[in-house]
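Cross-check.
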Amino acid sequence: MKTRVINIDELREVYLPHRYPFIFLDKILSFTEDSAIGVKNVTINEQFFQGHFPKYPILPGVVILESLAQLSGVLGKLIFADRGKDIALIKDSFFTSLDNSKFKAQVRPGDVLTLETKYIKDKMNLWYFDCKASVDGKLACSTSMSLYMSI
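Predicted model, tokenized:
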């Protein structure tokens, strides 16, 4: 599998079914046959900061987890394509489980959230990943997840 940057235009056109305001992946910096690194730029303009929390905005943990799920779904499609299959066959990917999710640091507006996912295995249409998110090299969140790839 070739490694290259995948920008937001390609993510929207080819890999992500999500649209505003639910795209939480801005770019994939690199990927290999079993891992991917992406980023989410955190800005004060995001709608959820109006209520989470107005005087001290913090990126909600569920947004971090969704960012990791979006990256994992894209990696799943890249792996699927690397196996010689058409990614258009994958209709969607859905969370099926989160395990051992831990939040270690706050993520705030102005931060660049670096997202990492590692493919573990797939069985039938269930795909398993280990993920982590960090800011400036400091771990913010780690989790294991599975996604159902609807084919």
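The domain at 8-150 is CATH 3.10.129.10 (Thiol Ester Dehydrase; Chain A). The mean pLDDT is 95. Passed to J.P. for a second look.
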